[in-house]
Design brief:
The radius of gyration is 21 Å and the shape is elongated. Helix content is 38%, strand content 20%. It has ten helices and ten strands. The strands form two sheets. The protein has a five-stranded parallel beta sheet with strand order 1-5-4-2-3, sandwiched between helices.
Length: 304
């Protein structure tokens, strides 16, 4: 029997690039050719530049007449919440504005400095986002250039980000990076954590209100807890702690949640099924941590 060669792997359509710079001229030296590439691409909508306002001003001036053909978006408008919110923003934009196959050029500068800078906790979530983007947006033929400014993003962040971009030479499996982040133990619950009989909406809402959350916030938090519980259950224990403006609920489950994309994949419709509860929770909460432990998992939701 003649041996048939294995079929060649399908090319990865999502082109995820990275550029590092420390001066405005260096930024323009990479950004302008990238946007020009997008402008010249056939059957592709106008490119998008998502960056700090000062860099958008630089681009507007340097592009000249072509500026009117490039969408310029302040990065604080795009990266306006959690990493999971950025996934939703990206998926929504591609669905509404990209070509049917996802063809579009996106220049993207994450927000790192802010008023006080991102905490290590926040930075880890954004590195997870950069890693998982390679899986989440794999079906789309999008070309993304992530811009890292050494004046706002520190060396540790840039080194970590290099591992999440295929064009750097040090790229690693996104699932491995997510597993590394999930291997960091969660701090133990405080001594005054309150056990709940079950993660029902009324009980969570009432206890969250008692801990100072406003009515609307307590409602959203309760909905996120019950949605997550439906997604990862059966739940064997529930703890709640914290005071406004933050509140934390920890669910312990009888089964493992070992999918690194759990809660990051947008649902196909506006109707949330129980299996999509983690998606809703990640959209509502500042952090949703999942740790597999033995035959079960711990899911910790922090509303803020």
């Amino acid at each position: 029997m003649t041996h048939q060669p294995e079929p060649a792997p399908t090319p990865h359509p999502f082109d995820h690039r990275m550029t590092v710079f420390g001066a405005d001229d260096d930024f323009l030296a990479t950004a302008l050719p990238f946007l020009t590439e997008g402008l010249a691409a056939t059957n592709e909508p106008p490119p998008v530049a998502i960056a700090a306002p000062d860099k958008l001003d630089l681009l507007h001036h340097a592009l000249g007449p072509d500026a009117k053909n490039v969408a310029l978006v302040p990065h604080t408008d795009w990266y306006s919440g959690s990493a999971a919110n950025a996934v939703a923003q990206g998926a929504g934009y591609l669905a509404a504005h990209a070509a049917p196959t996802g063809h579009i050029h996106l220049l993207m500068e994450p927000v790192w400095n802010g008023r006080a800078g991102r905490s290590p906790r926040e930075s880890a979530e954004w590195i997870r986002y950069e890693a998982l983007a390679n899986l989440l947006f794999a079906p789309f033929a999008t070309t993304a250039l992530c811009a890292y400014d050494t004046r706002t993003a520190g060396p540790a962040i840039i080194d970590a980000a290099r591992r999440t971009h295929p064009d750097t030479g040090v790229y690693e499996d996104p699932a491995r990076i997510a597993a590394e982040l999930d291997a960091v133990p969660l701090p133990p619950p405080p001594a005054d954590a309150e056990p709940l009989a079950r993660p029902d909406a009324e009980g969570v809402r009432r206890r969250a209100r008692a801990r100072g959350l406003a009515v609307a916030d307590a409602e959203l938090f309760a909905e996120s807890v019950t949605a997550a519980a439906a997604s990862v259950g059966p739940v064997t224990s529930t703890l709640l702690w914290g005071e406004a403006p933050s509140c934390v609920c920890e669910l312990r489950t009888a089964r493992r949640v070992d999918d690194p994309l759990a809660g990051f994949v947008p649902p196909p419709t506006d109707e949330l099924e129980p299996a999509q509860g983690l998606w809703f929770a990640r959209q509502v909460c500042a952090y949703v941590d999942v740790r597999d432990e033995g035959a079960g998992s711990t899911v910790r939701l922090q509303y803020a």
